[in-house]
Amino acid sequence: MATLPRLCRLPNTPPLSYLQHCRTNISLTHRSLRSISTSTAVPEPEPENEAERYISPQVDPKFRYGDVIVINDGKGDRRIIGPLKEGIFRDSNTGRLKHDDIVGMSPLSTIKTHKGAKFTLHWPTLDEYCTKVKRQASIMYPKDATSAVHLLDLFPGAHVLEAGTGNGSMTLYIQRAIQGPGSHLDTVDIRNEHSQQAEENVGRFWRGMYRPGIIFWRSVGGLQKVIKHLRGLETATDNTSESESGAEFDRDGRPLTKLEIKRKKLTEAKEVLPPNPHPVGHQYDAISLDLPDCKSVLLDLMPLLKPDRPMCLYMVNMSQVLELVQWMRKHDDKHSYIVERVLDVDWQEWSVRSAAVRSKVKGRVHVGGFGHVSLLRQAQPSDGETENQESNFTTAADNIPDDAVGWICRPLHMPTGHTGFLVQLRKNSE
Question: What is the pLDDT of residue 45?
Answer without folding.
Answer: 41
